[in-house]
Amino acid sequence: MTSDPAAGNRALLGWVTANTVVVVLSLVPLLWLVSLSFKTPESIGDGRLVPTDPTLANYRGIFTQSLFTRALVNSLGIALISTLLAVGIGGLAAYAIARLRFPGRRALVGLALLIAMFPQISLISPLFNLWRQLGIFDTWIGLIVPYLTFSLPLAIYTLATFFREIPPDLEKAAAMDGATPAQTFVRVIAPLAAPGTVTTAILVFIFCWNDFLFAISLTSTESSRTAPAAIAFFTGASQFAQPIGSIAAAAVVITIPIIVFVLLFQRRIVAGLTSGAVKG
Amino acid sequence: MGWLLCAPAVLVILLVTAYPIGYAVYLSLRRYDLRFPADTAFVGLANYGTVLSSGLWWQALKITMIITVVSVAIEFVLGLALALLMHRTLVGRGLVRTVILIPYGIVTVVAAFGWRFAWTPGTGYLAGLFGDAAPLTSQTWGVAVIILAEVWKTTPFMALLLLAGLALVPEELLRAAQVDGAGAWARLRRVTLPLMKPAILVALLFRTLDGFRIFDDIYVLTAGAHDTRSVSILGYDNLFTALNLGVGSALSVLIFGVVALIAVVFVRGFGTAAPGQETDHR
Q1: The pairing of beta strand B41-42 with beta strand B30-31
Q2: pLDDT for B117-159, tens place per residue?
Q3: Using CA atoms, how far apart are residues B147 and B135, in angstroms rounded to an integer?
Q4: Is the CB of B95 less than 8 angstroms away from the CB of A19?
Q5: Cβ A57 vs Cβ A40: under 8 Å
């Protein structure tokens, strides 16, 4: 805390430099993919960040392939359904954890945390076999079920934090006016929890959209393969002609919506991400 | 009433995790090769013997541990620096907070492709940096690039967790320490870090267990070639190329065991807030 203006300027310069470094490091890997996606096969190896002859051919290419368009539909459908289910089922549990005292409540929170850290690879062998026996291998439901499971802890944690912020007096007032617990939940709690619900939904959606391990292990065809898995299976004309342009274009397509979401809901996402973790 | 509301969530969670793990234990005790599905039999611990006596398992465990320890250590230092930057910066706080969410929001596979192209001679801007012709074709450089990809992707998450912890440090204490003549470094080490300890331990536990699961980055960057397999990659390969469900299940159980062990060490050894404790003092 000095009042020397030169030192103040130096400090300011230091912060600006540090901030710039962070911004550049965060953006460059993504910008490189964007750049590759606009390059022609001839210029893809030129090492320039700004393409010399930008082209949309890569984008046209992937959108005429059912491999990618179908995967996009799968990704969207599976992630949306999983998100709805996780927010619904998680919301009930979160409400109970935030508001009601009942035996085993702590154990439940512990269980949720354990699941959040569960090694997913341990489930691949048994689920692969179980899903084949149940006939849900390579179907939407075969992916929705594990996504729901692994996003429930996240949903419960985030929602419980938001529920706690709603003053309990509101419910007491509603009860005094003769509302049943169900009515209280629908009329009083749910509207107030809407922002938290949106945040939770975004976090869960990102989780499902991001998954790769389940997506390549529990699917085998276009009927349920999601976009990240499809991109990994893009193949070129030969082993040596990797479809770099197509991969880059597809990567940009599945990244941009998430980034837009994240930037729009920036504040809420930060609140949601850190809600469960640091109250120790 | 409480249980009734939680029942659906608990049911789904147990059906998809506890039951399959039990089933994996059962499968791991049987001979079950998908190429000969009719020939299954109880073989005791033979599958575990196969895994534990193979160099592949120990190699993968070693690589996984190296990647986890090194990347979590780097993430902690960078994350703390980033958290302090966001906490203290005079300019552009909102911009930094927004931009660091990009690595978090990006699909891991996409980021990994970005790094793969960057480090591949011909398509990349980084490949020639250290004079090595193709970094992703050697074990050391391969692992280094994997760690870089992992650090880039998850440092923001670490930083946000630590930032929330920083907010709990009372400003008056820092000022008092400054009046007593403590420099910036001493204030960080003697005041800030001890007060942040619970937040730090939770962040480290989260990231260690998450790092141990590493799969996407390796799959895209090296596909486990040149001895860069993690235990998750080994488990995947074993199921889909070796097609051996018995051995694969033994691997599943062993990985689950290691993860449980790490969690126990954190909670018992370092006194990380055990799951379930933190809800009580709100």
Answers
A1: antiparallel
A2: 888 877 777 766 666 567 777 888 889 999 999 999 999 889 9
A3: 13
A4: yes
A5: yes
Chosen from A10, A16, A21, A22 to mutate, greatest number of chain B CBs within 10 A? A22
Tell me if B229 sits within 8 A of B60, measured CB to CB: yes
Q: Give the structural domain span for B129.
A: 65-228
Q: Does A130 touch chain B (CB under 8 A)?
A: yes
Q: Which residues of B39-61 are buried (b: 16+ CB within 10 A; e: fewer)?
A: eeeebeebbbebbeeeeebeebb
Q: What does the pLDDT look like over B58-108, one tens digit per residue?
A: 999 999 999 999 999 999 999 999 888 888 876 777 788 888 888 888 889
Is residue B243, in this structure, part of any structural domain at all?
no
User: Does some domain include residue B279?
Assistant: no
Please indicate, yes or no, if residue B69 is contained in any of the structural domains: yes
Instruction: Flag if B213 and A100 touch (Cβ within 8 Å).
Output: no
A8-45 core/surface letters (b: 16 or more CB in 10 A; e: else): eeeeeeebeebbeebbeebeebbebbbbbbbbeeebbe
Q: Which pair of tokens denotes residue B28?
A: 């791991």
* 8 Å CB contact of B235 and A121: yes
A·B CB contacts under 8 A = 306
Amino acid at A149: T
Verify whether the Cβ–Cβ distance A119 to B259 is below 8 Å: yes
Helices B231-240 and B245-264 meet at what angle, rounded to 10?
A: 160
For residue A22, the chain B residue with the least C-alpha distance is: B96
By the 8 A CB rule, do B120 and B127 touch?
yes
pLDDT value for A4: 67
B249:A125 CB<8 A: yes
Cβ B117–A244 below 8 Å, yes or no? Answer: yes
Tens of pLDDT along A15-53?
888 888 888 888 888 888 888 888 887 777 777 777 777
CB distance A245 to A44 below 8 Å: yes
With CA atoms as reference, the chain B residue closest to A151 would be B13
* The pLDDT of residue B71: 95
For chain B, what is the domain count?
A: 1
Helix (H) or strand (E) holding B223: none
Nearest by CB to residue A19, choosing from B91, B259, B272, is B91
- Nearest CB among B89, B98, B107 relative to A263 is that of B98
CATH number of the domain bearing residue B204: 1.10.3720.10
Closest C-alpha among B102, B190, B201 to residue B154: B102
Predicted model pTM: 0.86
- Under the banding of pLDDT at 50, 70 and 90, the label for residue A76 is very high
Nearest CA in chain A to B278: A280
Q: Is the ipTM beyond the 0.90 threshold?
A: no
B108 vs A29, A101, A212: nearest CB: A212
Is there a contact between A124 and B236 if contact means CB atoms under 8 Å apart?
yes
